């Protein structure tokens, strides 16, 4: 296509090359309706589309968020209750989602198969433009009044419960407070997701009006990515959207808005009031995307300054804060925000007392003035250049586990939403090169930016967010009063009638074959064998994955940790943080981190563990020094030309970590403690799953110790120890580990592999590394003991729920596990298909649709030989556990038709064919070698999946019907959810002080 061409009524506004992605950008607008389309056309087979609408936030009722959920609950062409669920069940997507931002709502999906891609687009297009939006959908997804088992009125709804979960997380509330600080007095200060105390003020009429006003062609932006020709996509839009719309509607124009400048103190988060948990942040507003000024360079300037000044603990402003306020850690809200209309930069710390807030602000102000006066150190500039160089070179999937095109989608919407050419947002590499040139040619360039953005910028706000048990109690009380008032206002009879209609709607049968599906007989097995070669480097095991990595080398050195005593394992998460956070005997921690970031893209450590499959037990017995062990993995990535420096530096760190730096050690302990505490409520389903499986085998116990609630309790106990004791313990453990032998791994191109082999040989000689030594023989029970957490026992014999963890807030999570039907690969795939079927049918309808939970999961866990059930942001976690337990014995062989099974096979197939990045292929290859898993596993799994017959699923159904519950039944919830009745059936109730 060429500029000014017209195709099917679409005028080509711009065509341009995007050289860094070997792509062409094509920007079009439909002349009659105003619908805009932007296509990044290239050779990528993973095609993605997204429908985006400008949806301004006027209040905190969450109307845009509820609409986002509701349009995917039935439409004109697909009048069924949950087309989105059907797509989850049967489409071959590599990504399927929708999200609500401050001023836009976006519906993206991607697929590797063209037929499936257009099936997805067909359902999404009809959903957003022609949804049914009946009152039952509003009651289900938004809010409704119910009565609980005690006859008390309560508010329910999927979005309502999702946002209750958000408001039950201190970190989420603090993040909202920091982001809102630069937009005080504007509509952006409102909660587009919805405040649970305001969501019930939204009427059904306003809900309908919102969709009519904003979900129109003139207000729609269609993003396309991949190798499907633009003409084919426009043909689809013309036939399925343009020809069907009655009115184009109006494009929303963003009015000028000025934010207030004021000191703002908020005490609005859960938990016991402890000063050590305060979050204090200084936030600057820098620019307005809707003004369309300087969009070429401003976002990059903000991003670069954020990396330069705040990028890590050695960055100048962060280093100053850590040294000034001992014992505090940097808040996760620190950094820049350039994805919404108002750009901002925030600097925050956790642990200040409220009276220190002004001192904190003054400290930052003085730091900025000092930098303007004295300039930036060259090493900090080099560090920032390296960070951006990696971001340009590296092939990565998006943070949400979707295709990289999602990153480009969000980047494009940053300017396109406000009327600019999408091209403006894709010039970030050119912008980066421009910044590098200005730094070289204009000595005052960075100083002037810092002066402009920070020193002279009066548009700043100081935010203090403090935990307050009173705030949490007040909100709970307000919710009760609101529910009572609404119940009286609506009337008992009307509440009963609306619930009766809703339940009839939810229980009603429908033609689920309306959703288009790909014929599984046409599916192929595209999986490639991951090639991981095992060789030796100086007599040390050396694993190699040759991949096209664009000049990047991914290297790791692994040391066995299973020579330790089980009681030492609780220190491993802290040890991993110390490896990348402490200094060495040669350099201070600041110098170490700064130097690392100047020569590497990443340096860190983690603990690797997994279960050896049954078919490899003999192989593990024959190779006990390698297969089936637990490892401390020290990993680093670098550009090939930095190889010598990278390995020299790795040698320095591995051989001489300075565990005696107590002030720095305290900062790391506090930071890890804060991050683990903050992760419990947002990730409650994950913690519940780990907890439920902890006693099934050693691998599950180790995973719970390093990643589960055991690690949360452990770090809080470690924090109480004397720093000298922590230091001594870590050094002792570390010495044991690195004297236990090692193995190497590299993922790189040919020249990168050669450079890595040379570097590893240097490590062997310099560190006197050896072949891995035998593991310590310890019974599984010794590891099980390490996962025990003290609590009050209520029901000693046969409790319905084994462990209940009490967290602040008013939301819940649940998990339980049952024995899977088999360990052979075909049986595992049959179990996977059946669990997918059950999750997306009965469990979803009962727990998510009717029960109001935000999510429900049923997944086969190879690490434990179980199928694990879990719920997410669940208002009724104990009812959910009860329903799951009651459901299994009622299963029948003819529960699902073969058509249902074929759709589920397609849905599971989509998970199996998700593309790997080069780094992912390398990491997966090593993991499979270390645990005796076939390097052709993907191909084997897909072969077994596509050969499944109805009889295979029937066998699986029979096994689940008689399955025994194993492990523990676990709930994590707020204390208000634990009634006297629940206490009587609970084995142990444990309070988590977060």
Question: Would you write up a description of this structure?
Answer:
- With 994 residues, the chain is α+β, with helices and mostly antiparallel strands.
- The chain has 4 domains: 6-247 and 475-507, Cytochrome Bc1 Complex, Chain A, domain 1 (2-Layer Sandwich); 264-467, Cytochrome Bc1 Complex, Chain A, domain 1; 538-783, Metalloenzyme, LuxS/M16 peptidase-like (Cytochrome Bc1 Complex, Chain A, domain 1); 811-973, Metalloenzyme, LuxS/M16 peptidase-like (Cytochrome Bc1 Complex, Chain A, domain 1), CATH 3.30.830.10.
- The model has no long low-confidence stretch (mean pLDDT 92).
The tally of structural domains comes to: 4
Helix content: 40-55%
Q: Percent of residues in beta strands?
A: 15-25%
Low-confidence stretches at least 5 residues in length (pLDDT < 50)? Answer: none
Shape: globular
Which CATH class of the largest domain applies here?
A: Alpha Beta
- What's the CATH H-level superfamily name of the largest domain? Metalloenzyme, LuxS/M16 peptidase-like
Instruction: Tell me what the CATH architecture of the largest domain is.
Output: 2-Layer Sandwich
Mean pLDDT: 92
As for the CATH topology of the largest domain, it is: Cytochrome Bc1 Complex, Chain A, domain 1
Rg over CA atoms: 28 Å
Q: For the terminal residues, how far apart are their CA atoms?
A: 57 Å
- Report the total helices: 35
Q: Structural class of the helices, strands and pairings?
A: alpha+beta
Largest beta-sheet details: 9 strands, mixed
């Amino acid at each position: 296509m060429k500029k000014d061409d017209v195709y099917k009524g679409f005028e080509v506004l711009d065509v341009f090359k995007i050289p860094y992605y070997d792509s062409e950008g094509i920007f079009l607008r439909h002349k009659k309706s105003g619908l805009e389309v932007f296509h990044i056309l290239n050779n990528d087979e993973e095609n993605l589309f997204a429908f985006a609408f400008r949806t301004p936030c006027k209040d905190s009722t969450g109307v845009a968020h509820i609409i986002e959920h509701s349009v995917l609950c039935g439409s004109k062409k697909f009048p069924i209750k949950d087309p989105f669920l059907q797509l989850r069940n049967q489409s071959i997507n590599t990504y399927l989602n929708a999200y609500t931002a401050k001023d836009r709502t976006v519906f993206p999906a991607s697929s590797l198969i063209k037929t499936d891609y257009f099936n997805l687009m067909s359902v999404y297009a009809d959903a957003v433009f022609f949804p049914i939006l009946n009152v039952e959908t509003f009651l289900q997804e938004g809010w409704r009044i119910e009565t609980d088992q005690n006859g008390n009125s309560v508010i329910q709804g999927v979005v309502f419960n999702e946002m209750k979960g958000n408001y039950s997380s201190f970190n989420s509330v603090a993040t909202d407070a920091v982001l809102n600080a630069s937009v005080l007095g504007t509509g952006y200060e409102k909660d587009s997701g919805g405040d649970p105390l305001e969501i019930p003020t939204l009427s059904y009429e306003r809900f309908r009006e919102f969709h009519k006003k904003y979900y129109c062609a003139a207000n729609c932006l269609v993003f396309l990515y991949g190798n499907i020709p633009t003409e084919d996509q426009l043909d689809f839009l013309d036939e399925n959207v343009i020809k069907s719309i009655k009115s184009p509607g109006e494009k929303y124009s963003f009015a000028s808005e000025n934010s207030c400048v004021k000191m703002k103190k908020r005490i609005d988060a859960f938990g016991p009031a402890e000063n050590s948990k305060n979050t204090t942040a200084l936030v600057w507003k820098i620019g307005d995307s809707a003004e369309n000024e300087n969009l070429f360079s401003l976002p990059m300037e903000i991003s670069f300054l954020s990396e330069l000044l705040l990028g890590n603990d050695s960055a100048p402003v962060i280093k100053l804060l850590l040294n000034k306020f001992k014992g505090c850690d940097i808040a996760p809200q620190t950094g820049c925000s350039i994805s919404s209309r108002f750009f901002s930069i925030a600097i925050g710390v956790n642990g200040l007392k409220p009276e220190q807030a002004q001192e904190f602000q003054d400290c930052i102000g003085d730091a900025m003035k000092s930098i303007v006066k004295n300039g930036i150190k060259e090493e900090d500039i080099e560090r920032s250049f390296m960070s951006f160089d990696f971001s340009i070179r590296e092939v990565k999937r998006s943070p949400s586990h979707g295709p990289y095109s999602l990153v480009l989608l969000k980047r494009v919407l940053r300017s396109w939403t406000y009327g600019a050419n999408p091209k403006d947002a894709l010039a970030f590499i050119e912008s980066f090169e421009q910044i590098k040139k200005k730094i070289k040619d204009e000595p005052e360039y960075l100083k002037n930016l810092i002066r402009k953005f920070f020193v002279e910028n009066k548009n700043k706000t100081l935010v203090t967010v403090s935990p307050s048990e009173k705030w949490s109690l007040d909100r709970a009380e307000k919710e009760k009063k609101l529910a009572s008032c609404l119940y009286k206002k609506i009337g008992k009879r009307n509440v009963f009638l609306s619930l009766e209609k809703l339940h009839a709607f939810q229980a009603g049968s429908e033609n689920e074959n309306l959703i288009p599906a790909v014929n599984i007989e046409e599916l192929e097995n595209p999986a490639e064998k991951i090639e991981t070669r095992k060789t030796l480097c100086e007599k040390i095991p050396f694993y190699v994955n040759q991949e096209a990595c664009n000049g990047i080398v991914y290297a790791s050195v692994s040391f066995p940790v299973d020579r330790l005593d089980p009681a030492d394992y609780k220190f491993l998460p802290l040890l991993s943080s110390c490896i990348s956070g402490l200094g060495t005997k040669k350099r201070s921690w600041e110098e170490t981190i700064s130097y690392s970031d100047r020569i590497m893209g990443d340096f860190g450590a983690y603990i690797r563990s997994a279960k050896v499959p049954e078919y490899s037990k003999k192989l593990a017995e024959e190779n006990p020094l390698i297969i089936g062990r637990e490892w401390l993995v020290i990993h680093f990535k670098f550009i090939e030309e930095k190889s010598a420096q990278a390995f020299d530096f790795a040698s320095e760190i591995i051989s001489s970590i300075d565990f005696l730096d107590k002030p720095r050690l305290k900062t790391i302990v506090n930071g890890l403690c804060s991050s683990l505490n903050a992760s419990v409520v947002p990730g409650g389903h994950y913690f519940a799953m780990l907890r439920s499986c902890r006693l099934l085998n050693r691998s599950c116990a180790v995973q719970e110790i390093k990643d589960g609630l055991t690690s949360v309790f452990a770090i809080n106990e470690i924090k109480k120890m004397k720093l000298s004791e922590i230091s001594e313990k870590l050094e002792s453990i570390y010495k044991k580990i690195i004297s236990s032998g090692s193995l190497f791994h590299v993922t790189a191109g040919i020249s990168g592999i050669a450079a890595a082999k040379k570097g590893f040989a240097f490590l062997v000689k310099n560190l006197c590394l050896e072949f891995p030594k035998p593991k310590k023989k310890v019974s599984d029970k010794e590891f099980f003991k390490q996962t025990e957490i003290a609590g009050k026992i209520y029901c000693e014999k046969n409790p319905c729920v084994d462990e209940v963890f009490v967290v602040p807030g008013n939301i819940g999570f649940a998990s339980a596990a049952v024995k899977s039907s088999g360990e052979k690969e075909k049986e595992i795939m049959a179990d996977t298909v059946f669990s997918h079927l059950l999750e997306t049918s009965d469990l979803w309808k009962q727990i998510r649709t009717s029960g109001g939970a935000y999510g429900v999961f049923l997944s086969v866990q190879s690490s434990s030989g179980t199928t694990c059930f879990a719920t997410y942001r669940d208002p009724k976690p104990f009812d959910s556990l009860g329903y799951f337990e009651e459901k299994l014995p009622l299963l029948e062989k003819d529960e699902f038709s073969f058509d249902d099974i074929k759709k589920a096979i397609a849905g599971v197939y989509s998970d199996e064919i998700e593309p790997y990045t080069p780094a992912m292929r390398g990491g997966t290859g090593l993991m499979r070698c270390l645990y005796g898993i076939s390097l052709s596993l993907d191909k084997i799994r897909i072969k077994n999946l596509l050969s499944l017959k109805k009889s295979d699923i029937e066998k699986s159904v029979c096994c689940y019907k008689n399955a025994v519950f194993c492990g523990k039944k676990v709930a994590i919830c707020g204390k208000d959810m634990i009634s006297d009745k629940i206490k009587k059936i609970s084995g142990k109730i444990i309070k988590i002080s977060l």
